[in-house]
Every structure is written in structure tokens, then in C-alpha cells.
Specification:
Elements lengths: L1 H22 L14 H57 L6 H29 L8 E4 H13 L8 E7 L3 E4 L1 H18 L6 E9 L2 E8 L6 H4 L18 H11 L3 E8 L2 E9 L31
Parallel strand pairs: 2-4
Antiparallel strand pairs: 1-3, 4-5, 5-7, 6-7
Helix pairs in contact: 1-2, 2-3, 4-5, 5-7
């Protein structure tokens, strides 16, 4: 019995365990392929197949990484050239001494728009590259953060006409990163402003207290999102109906919200408009001390979280 167990049962058990480990993506499981019998031969063949699979997977990941960098570089260079060309052209026009005050102001606005586009691009790239460790949790009010994002949007001359209203139900204070959340809300509002009609644009931001946090809905009366694009909205480099843009805006929104332990979805979209829904847990005291690289600080207990949402 010992001979049978040592020669057949244990090696077979090790091989089966190795197969099961590979099923869940574990390429490091140790396989015993000693001996010259059939079981050892099969084990060695399986180990060789596993090593080849790991090498192929690593090569594919590297190829995908390089392709992603290439797409990003192409998109960035295109957008930067577009904005720089606008700045240079308008700067040359501003050198004309015969321009009226109104003409100069119009050219200055064009320059501001181009500068804002470049700033948005750089900010999106920086946010895209950061990790969750960069969160700086502060006890603040989401309502104030929304108002700051709206003010930033209205600083863009091309969006002065867009009406943005806000409603609130219940409490919206808690522990979160106001700067990061403002960036996410700004991107959602920017997306909505670009979708609405030039003179009849209306956007509403709805805040509602939910168990464990706050729900934020950004609603617009724009043209809606085509169905083929809806499932890819949060993927990098996906954009629709824009002459320029890296397609990182909604990717950054999702990253920031998920870094907070929340979730963002497209609640509905049609020719009558689109609604983005953000579910943002407001961190409890124990969670404010767990982010790497931060000094632990005590915080008062907030609403108990009853719904576990997706975390990056």
C-alpha cells in the first residue's frame, strides 16, 4: 500500500492540485515531476505547457501595454497640437493693432478655451496614472464639492449658457477626498455640457442620502449615447461626438469613485438625455486610517455601511 501511495497516489494528487491551481491563475504551484513512470512524464509535460502559457501571457500583456502607450501617445499629441495651433493662431491675430476691444476679447476667449483643454488633458493623464494611495480623506460636504465643480465648468466661456441646477435630499457630509471627487464631478459635468444643445442646455445634479453614503446623479438633456458605445464608456480612449479628447474623462471618473469604494454607472440614456449615477460611500472612522502612506487620524463614526460596492 505504501508503494502504491508513494508511486501513484501522491504524484497524481500533486498533478491534480497543479491543474486546479492553474484554473484560478496560479502559475507558481510546485509540481513534483521526479521519476520515469507515466505520471511523472505527464507531470513534466503539464509543467512545460504551464511555463509556455505563462511566457505567452507575459508577452501578450507586454504587447497590450505597448499598444496602449502607442494609442495614448497618438491621442495626446493630436490634442496638444490642436490646442497649440489655436493658441498660436489667435496670438498672431492679437498682434494686429487695428483690432477692436470686442475682437480682442473674442480672441482672448479662444486662447482661454485652448489653455483649458490642455490643462484638462494634463490633469486627466496625471489622475489616470495615480494609485489609490494618493487619496487624502477629509471630513467635508459633497454639496460644496459639487458647487466648486460647477464654478469651474462655468469658467469655460463656451459653457456660460448651460444652466446647471442642484437639488439635495438629506445629509451629504462625510470622509472623502474633496479634490479628487471634484475632478470626477467636473469630468461628468464637462461630458454633459459637451452633449447638450448650444442654447438649450440644461443639467441637473441630484444629491440624495442613502444608507452608508450619498447618491449623486448628473442628468442632462443632450443627444444621448449610442447603444454600441454604452458598454465601453469607461474604457480608456473611448469617446463619442468630440472633435478632440483622449477618451480618459470617464475612465478617470470611474477610477476616482472606485478608489473611494464606490461605483458609477449610466442609469439611462436616450435622445432626451443621459443620467450618470455615482454611489459614494462616506468612509467610516476605521477606514480613514488604512490608506498606505498616510498618518493615522481618528475620525467620528459615520453612517454604517450596509451595502458593499465595488472597489478597485
Amino acid at each position: 500500500m505504501f508503494f502504491i501511495s508513494h508511486t501513484f497516489t501522491r504524484p497524481l494528487g500533486s498533478l491534480v492540485a497543479g491543474v486546479r491551481a492553474l484554473e484560478v491563475g496560479d502559475f507558481r504551484y510546485s509540481l513534483d515531476a521526479r521519476g520515469s513512470d507515466e505520471v511523472a512524464e505527464v507531470t513534466r509535460a503539464f509543467k512545460g505547457m504551464r511555463d509556455s502559457l505563462l511566457k505567452t501571457q507575459q508577452e501578450l500583456l507586454e504587447a497590450e501595454r505597448l499598444a496602449t502607450i502607442g494609442r495614448m501617445a497618438s491621442s495626446i499629441s493630436h490634442d496638444l497640437r490642436h490646442s497649440l495651433a489655436a493658441i498660436v493662431a489667435n496670438a498672431e491675430f492679437l498682434c494686429e493693432s487695428r483690432l477692436s476691444t470686442e475682437q480682442r476679447e473674442e480672441l482672448y476667449q479662444e486662447v482661454r478655451v485652448a489653455v483649458n483643454q490642455m490643462t484638462d488633458l494634463i490633469d486627466s493623464l496625471l489622475e489616470f496614472s495615480r494609485t489609490r494611495e494618493s487619496l487624502r480623506l477629509t471630513h467635508a460636504n459633497v454639496k460644496d464639492t459639487v458647487e466648486h465643480a460647477v464654478q469651474t465648468i462655468h469658467s469655460h466661456p463656451e459653457f456660460h449658457h448651460v444652466r446647471i441646477a442642484m437639488t439635495q435630499q438629506g445629509n451629504s457630509t462625510g470622509w472623502f477626498d474633496p479634490k479628487k471627487l471634484e475632478r470626477a464631478l467636473y469630468n461628468l459635468l464637462l461630458n454633459a455640457c459637451e452633449a447638450v444643445a448650444s442654447q438649450a442646455g440644461e443639467i441637473e445634479v441630484e444629491l440624495r442620502e442613502v444608507s452608508g453614503g450619498v447618491e449623486i446623479r448628473v442628468c442632462d438633456n443632450g443627444r444621448g449615447i449610442p447603444e454600441p458605445v454604452q458598454g465601453k464608456l469607461f474604457e480608456p480612449f473611448v469617446s463619442y461626438g468630440k472633435e478632440n479628447g483622449t477618451g480618459l474623462g470617464l475612465t478617470v471618473v470611474q477610477k476616482i469613485v472606485q478608489d473611494h469604494g464606490g461605483d458609477v454607472t449610466v442609469e439611462k440614456t436616450s435622445v432626451a438625455g443621459t443620467v450618470f449615477r455615482v454611489l459614494l460611500p462616506l468612509a467610516a472612522a476605521s477606514e480613514t486610517t488604512t490608506l498606505p502612506g498616510r498618518e493615522a487620524k481618528p475620525a467620528p463614526p459615520l453612517m454604517a455601511r450596509t451595502k458593499q460596492v465595488q472597489s478597485e
